[in-house]
Design brief:
Layout: H1 11-19, H2 27-37, E1 42-45, H3 52-63, E2 74-77, H4 81-94, E3 102-105, H5 112-121, E4 125-128, H6 130-138, E5 149-152, H7 155-160, H8 164-172, E6 178-183, H9 188-194, E7 202-205, E8 218-224, H10 227-238, E9 247-251, H11 254-263, E10 271-273, H12 287-292, E11 298-302, H13 303-306, E12 316-319, H14 326-333, E13 344-350, H15 354-364, E14 369-370, H16 384-393, H17 416-424
Parallel strand pairs: 1-6, 1-7, 2-4, 2-5, 3-4, 5-6, 8-13, 8-14, 9-11, 9-12, 10-11, 12-13
Helix pairs in contact: 2-3, 3-4, 6-8
Length: about 425
Amino acid sequence: MSSFEKLKLSKQLQIAVLNAGFSQPTSLQSKIFSRINGGQDLVAVAPEGSGKSTAIVLASLSKLKHTEEIAPRVLIMVPSKERGEALIEQFQLLNRNKSLRIYGLFNDQATLDAQVLEVTDGVDIIIAQPDRARAVYLKLGLNLNKLQLFIVDDADEIVKNGLQLPISELGRGTPKAQYLIFSSVYHARIERMLSYFMEDYTVLEVAELENKNLRCIEQIRYQVPNFKTKLNLLELLLKDNEVFDKVLVSVNSEFTAETVYKMLSLNIEEVATIKCQGFSDHNVESVEDFLLNPKKRILIVIQDDLKGLETMKVPFLMFFDLPIEQDAYKQKVLWLAEQQEDQIALVLLTELELSDFRKIEQDLGQRAQEMELPQDLFIETENKRRKAEDEEEDPSRGGAFHEKKAKNLKTENIKPSERYKKHKK
């Protein structure tokens, strides 16, 4: 790995990073700085701990020349006040030019009028929550004409918090700036937000994982755009009773459990629940009872009850919801016994859940295999028109996303993982 000298930092910044205890740049920093120095608009996708904050600070300090300006030259969007304050601390650590004026524009820090006065008095770098920056901008307190860098930090969190509109509006107001976007994931919602103000940009992904030497069962993930499509996917997958002969479906709430229970257009006799007497007439006392009952094929479990269940003998663990307590997921996928040799965990994720799952993958030190969505999956809302156009263009796609097996095919002696892989061919 190269040293900080090869990032073409000034001598002053090189001394600052060395004094701060950074001996080598991270992979992310090594890959993006030549592009930043070249003026490219960039989307940098990397996990936590990859040095995104330091990259933001170094990029900002490298860009600014020591000229007096009233209007800000760097605007950094952050999802929360806490994230912004942490970034200001990083600036204070690495900034040796004490004449630079750095100001935090946060929702609960001061009145809007007071913040307008602070900004119009003159600042060089603004670190702001998007909605607050937009409010100051609309009061004519934020001049974007001199902006050199427009940076969005934790873009995935900003999208998750529903702050796309102020990002898009402020981004459109900075046509002369260089755009740098940092995120732990990149998906359609982020792409849609950026499309309002960015045209040609490079997406650079650093997907390093620390080797944790943890053994896990096989993990597979599906990514869908929204909750309704996830319901459609669950129903479609579970219709295949040859593959999914015994499957535990984990959800985060009783409401979702009831929604899934009522949605399944299967033989209701095949579906069982645990501790869901409020809506289900098919409760079982334990996972063992479920496994021993030949009529029961699907077991719906609420996350609060998942930790205490013995699930190692269930061939398929399907996480309809990513557990709020991430340890609940990690506990179930860690390999502990021989009977888990062919156990599979399937995770159904919306785009907004993807960043949380990336954190789990970082903790486990391994990636789940991403599967393509079935061709006959009905994509809800924004993709309805796209799917209709696809089907019109290619009527040969057909209905099923796998070859139908003969009705009398025996599967009881085939391992779950082999059945699933054969099913996907």
